[in-house]
Write a structure and sequence with these properties.
Structural class: alpha/beta
CATH class: Alpha Beta
Order of helices and strands: EHEHEHEHHEHEEHEEHEEHEHHHH
CATH superfamily: NAD(P)-binding Rossmann-like Domain
CATH topology: Rossmann fold
Largest sheet: 7 strands, parallel
Helix content: 40-55%
Distance between the termini: 46 Å
Number of strands: 12
Number of helices: 13
Strand order of the largest sheet: 3-2-1-4-5-6-10
Number of domains: 1
CATH architecture: 3-Layer(aba) Sandwich
Bound molecules: nicotinamide-adenine-dinucleotide, 2'deoxy-thymidine-5'-diphospho-alpha-D-glucose
Length: 356
């Protein structure tokens, strides 16, 4: 272990209504050794759904607070910092979808770069009481690999999409605030997450829902691109471990040790669904697979060397890809209400009633 536990009592979580932020807040309140208060700051973009946390909000009224705010709005952030005497930050909020960044990069620059800068400036202003600023980032900052090798923390940054370039910029800012101002920061660069509450624009939930609806399963290019997959709960335990014990100024790569070709992932989704929900027409859902035009600048392969977090912080993923994928698909089958509300955008009406 590198460092003693950090005393964090009033934790600001940004982007807590998104996929990973939701899972992280649920983990901290329900299972982790954390007994402080969480203030969840989320703008509620198309990807943010506060209904994900309705049950924990009711269960932990003293320990969980939601504030709808944009991390690009410095004044709003300052009010929240003052009101709740924030002493630590876990920064998830981002525009996160590569395809959207190709079509409309503006919001990625604003939220991922300017928003992170605002948070850092605020952290600097409140430096005396700040215990930690943890920045959640991605393996995509390292670019694309050939057939061999893996990204280490020392791999040079070579981002290829507007999304990954904006995340790379934010990583550099976080690191610079540590070097220049001595801000207590930690960073994590993680591979592809999957699991409950993921918005159905990402590969796995998109394929599950399309397959259930008997719709085509669009695989980009030749389907041979490789991603390393990590069950979201394992990402949450890694982030919390780093926040508690990671060395200030240090970056940690986080991965699942589960490299898979996209086509294999989609075939596995089809096979598990065929088993759990036998198709009415008797035909394998694999027949829905359709190869479509490739994503521009599509990174060929990601792989993560997570030796540092394994050896220094004694963390490793618990879920295998096969078991995690089955759990995930079962969750989507069991939570059809969530799927229907997200697909129809009904939770937006609920947001209006609750917060406006
Ligand atoms: P997501 O898109 O599901 O959620 C993002 C959340 O941020 C949403 O709730 C959204 O409303 C909120 N948000 C967006 N802009 C905001 C703004 N300006 N102010 C306040 N809130 C705002 O994303 P995710 O998949 O949960 O990713 C979370 C973080 O983890 C991101 O920083 C992403 O780069 C990183 N990451 C994701 C993965 C992955 O596989 N999903 C892997 C590695 C790293
Ligand atoms: O590696 C970490 C990154 O993983 C995170 O930083 C991003 O926030 C997250 O969105 C994810 O990025 P990807 O681009 O890898 O994820 P996505 O689910 O969009 O795509 C996974 C792979 O599947 C990728 O090679 C593109 C391919 N794909 C995706 C979609 C949506 C398809 O073939 N068809 C599709 O319809």
């Amino acid at each position: 272990m590198e460092k003693a536990l950090r005393p964090m009592h009033r934790l600001l979580v940004t982007g807590g209504c998104g996929f990973i932020g939701t899972n992280f807040i649920r983990y901290l309140l329900q299972d982790a050794d954390f007994d402080g208060q969480i203030v969840n700051v989320d703008k509620l973009t198309y990807a943010g759904n506060p209904e994900n946390l309705t049950d924990v909000a009711a269960q932990y009224p003293q320990r969980y607070v939601f504030e709808q705010a944009d991390i690009c709005d410095s004044e709003a952030l300052k009010r929240i910092f003052d009101r709740y005497s924030i002493d630590s930050i876990c920064h998830f909020a981002a525009e996160s979808h590569v395809d959207r960044s190709i079509v409309a990069p503006d919001a990625f620059i604003q939220t991922n770069i300017v928003g992170t800068f605002n948070l850092l400036e605020l952290a600097r202003a409140y430096r005396t009481r700040l215990v930690l600023f943890h920045h959640v980032s991605t393996d995509e900052v390292f670019g694309s690999l050939g057939d061999h090798g893996a990204f280490s923390e020392d791999t040079a940054y070579r981002p290829n999409s507007p999304y990954s370039a904006s995340k790379a910029a934010s990583d550099h800012l976080v690191r610079a605030y540590h070097k220049t101002y001595g801000l207590p920061v930690t960073l994590s660069n993680c591979s592809n997450n999957y699991g409950p509450y993921q918005f159905p624009e990402k590969l796995i939930p998109l394929m599950v829902l399309n397959a259930l609806a008997d719709q085509p399963l669009p695989v980009y290019g030749d389907g041979q691109n490789v991603r390393d997959w990590l069950y979201v709960r394992d990402h949450c335990t890694a982030v919390w471990r780093i926040m508690q014990r990671g060395r200030a100024g240090q970056t940690y790569n986080v991965g699942g040790g589960s490299e898979m070709r996209n086509i294999t992932v989609v075939e596995m989704v089809c096979d598990i669904l065929d088993e759990l929900v036998p198709p009415q027409n008797g035909r394998s859902r694999r027949e829905l697979i359709t190869f479509v035009t490739d994503r521009p600048g599509h990174d060929r392969r990601y792989a993560i060397d997570f030796t540092r977090i394994r050896e220094k912080l004694n963390w490793q993923p618990e879920e295998s890809f096969a078991s995690g994928l089955r759990k995930t698909i079962t969750w989507y089958l069991d939570q059809r209400w969530w799927v229907e509300r997200v697909k129809s955008g009904q939770y937006r009406e609920w947001i209006k009633q609750q917060y406006h």
